[in-house]
Structure formats: structure tokens, C-alpha cells
Amino acid sequence: MVYNARMQNNNQFPRFFSASHAPIDFYFKKCARDFVVQEEPLYPFSQSGEHLIVHVRKKDKTTWEMLSLLSQVLGCKMSAFGYAGLKDKNALTFQYISLPKAYEKALEGHASTLYEQGVKILDTTAHTHKIRLGHLKGNHFAMRLKKLTPLNAQKIAEVLEVLQNKGFLNYFGAQRFGRKGDNFKHVNTGKKKLDKFLLSSQQSFCFNQWLSARARLNAFVNNFSPLEIAKEYPQISLEQARALKAQPQDFKLLEGDVLCHYPFGKYFHHSTQDLDTNLKRLQARSLVATGLLPGFKVLEARNLAGEFEKPFKQEIDSCGDRRFALVYPQEVDFLYLSQEAQGQLKFFLPKGAYATIFLEEIARQELFSPDA
């Protein structure tokens, strides 16, 4: 995927959350040389047990393509593998997978064959159980930005300071929805694993729509009077509009929002009685609002927040969940190489957050399209 930061943003709703800086131009190619992803496990492995933990480096392969290759070479069923998350194809990625210890010798014997096909075995250990989806703390990213002028490099450095404090909207990236951007519409293929993934894409689409609607509300509250807010949103009373206007942070809390301790913790409902306490925790980046991934057995928003969430609820035959509305980049490091006209950007994001969305926030432009 190749893109240039001059592409226009055609979203219906506000996409960006940072200060209103002008678009920043650069060039980036999503490839193994310019895009590196390193997974950080949720916890240390026990170094003993019946499951082999393999630290792998893959190049130009999706996680599923890598597992399919391993399955063919080792004679191991796909269902026997465990992994914490799906990693990009057009990148150099490092991740952990698990498989039964019975395949350890076969793995050692086929290491050179796997290496020739873009999969390198870095090291192995053991653990008491299989790696489960979502069992990771997050990912470390490294990106090389090209055709970058000194002025635009300075702008990036300034924007990064803002984003570390304010966070960015936690949209699912375009790659979540396939090449045509519509895989969430096709959920009955008859293939269990594929159908599960497509249902997940449908949940992701609902979340993105909800987040877009809340982004629009945030922008409206920040730029218009309480009277105009109440006219635009009939479900919001004039008194509620005044209260929203008084909130100092950009992402406004609604009565009944489902909040979560950040970056890990329990869900609970926001009440206006707890507004001062919750606003302080928001400013300390220890609390964040969440959006719905519709399905069964999931905590839903109430009251005013529930009214905003209701249009994006669907009957989806999958377990539901919540997702952070905002995420905060950590370990951010940016180095400008003037002679090469390149920028080296490194950062850490919690699990589920997309580096591509963060990059778009920096550029303040929509850079990725489903068919790119």
C-alpha cells in the first residue's frame, strides 16, 4: 500500500481529534522496510508446560497465511495454533504463537524451509496454556516517513506533543474491512473461522459509526452555543447542553456513558453526580469512555449516552464487547534525518489500536482507503 499525505478526507463526520493544524505532507510505503510491528505479550510466559511458545518474525504475510504455512509444513491443524492478534501483511512483524510441544522437533527441522518463505523462528519457550486472542499488552511500531521537509518535520514533532496528552480517536483501520471495504456485509460463507472474523468486522463497522457520531457531537459542542446544540440535538435539553459546554475536555461525557479504567480495568456507568471526579481522572489519562461492539452479554450505555448508542446496535450473533473511544500513544520518539529527508517515528499503542489511524491523525488527512 502506497499513499501520499495529500489525499483528501471524504468522511461524513469529523475524523480528527488533535489541534486544528494544517495537513502535513509526507510519503509512506507500507512495506517490510518502512513498517515494523513488535508484539508485547500481556504477561511473561511460564517457561514450562505443554504448549510451545514460538517467537516468530514474518515478512509480507498475514498472520493467517503464516499459520497456514506452518500447518502445511508441520502437519499441524490450524485449530491447534494460538495467537494474540492479527498482524499486518505489508510489514516486518514480530509476534508470538503457540502450538503443542509435540511439534517442537518438526519445527526445528523445517526452520530453514520456513525462513526461505518469509518466516523466521527467533526463539522458543513453553507455557501452561495456549495463547488466546487478545492476550497482549499492545504493539511497538516503527515507521519511516519519506519526502519530509524540515518544516513538516517540525510540525510533526509539535503534533506528537499534543497527541500524547489528548490521545486520538480509536477508529478501526480500513484494513479491518477488506479490499473493498465491505466485508462486514458478508457474514454467511459457511466457513466457521471466516464467518467469525466477518462478524467481528460488522461489530467494528458499528463502532466506527458510533465514534463518528460522537466526534460530530464533540465538534458541535465545542463550536456552538448551548441553544444551537439543543436545536441540533433534540434529545439534549438546554440544561444538558450548558453542562456539556462546560466540560473542559474535547471528548464530552454523556450521562450513562460506559467508562473504563485505562489502560486496563473494569467498566462502569458515568453519572453526572460523579462528573468532577471522572473529569479529573480523564485529565490524568486513567479513565476513558468506551463504545459498543454489539452482540450478546455486553454492558450497554444508559440514559443520554444510551440514546446515542441505540442507532448503532445490531443483532449480531457474537459475544459483544466495549472498545476505548480514545487511546494514548506511549514511548513516542521522532527523529528527523535532514540529509535523507526522512523521519523515523516510533511509538507504542495498546492492543486493538491501529498505527495507521495514529498516522492519519498526525497528518490530519485520511491516508488509507480500503482498495489502496
Helix proportion of residues, in percent? Answer: 25-40%
First-to-last CA distance: 6 Å
What is the 3D form? globular
**Alpha-carbon Rg, integer:** 22 Å
Which class do the helix and strand fractions yield?
alpha+beta
What is the ordering of alpha helices and beta strands? Answer: EEEEHEEHHEEHEHHHEEHEHEEEEH
In what range is the share of β-strand residues? 15-25%
List unreliable stretches of 5+ residues: 1-13
> What's the rounded overall pLDDT mean?
90
Task: Please describe the topology of this protein.
Blueprint lengths: L1 E3 L22 E3 L5 E7 L9 E9 L3 H12 L7 E2 L8 E9 L3 H6 L1 H6 L2 E9 L8 E10 L4 H17 L1 E2 L22 H32 L2 H7 L5 H9 L11 E4 L5 E3 L5 H9 L3 E7 L9 H7 L11 E4 L1 E2 L2 E8 L4 E9 L4 H9 L9
Parallel strand pairs: 3-6
Antiparallel strand pairs: 1-2, 3-8, 4-6, 4-7, 5-6, 8-16, 9-14, 10-11, 10-12, 12-13, 15-16
Characterise the protein shown here.
Strands 3, 4, 5, 6, 7, 8, 15 and 16 form an 8-stranded mixed β-sheet that branches. Strands 11-10-12-13 form a 4-stranded antiparallel β-sheet. Helix 6 packs across helix 7. With 372 residues, it is α+β, with helices and mostly antiparallel strands. The protein starts with a strand and ends in a 9-residue tail after the last helix. Strand 15 (330-337) and strand 16 form a beta hairpin. It contains 10 helices and 16 strands. Residues 1-13 have low confidence and may be disordered. 31% of the residues lie in helices and 24% in strands. The radius of gyration is 22 Å and the shape is globular. The protein has helices at residues 63-74, 104-109, 111-116, 150-166, 192-223, 226-232, 238-246, 275-283, 303-309, 355-363; strands at 2-4, 27-29, 35-41, 51-59, 82-83, 92-100, 119-127, 136-145, 168-169, 258-261, 267-269, 287-293, 321-324, 326-327, 330-337, 342-350.
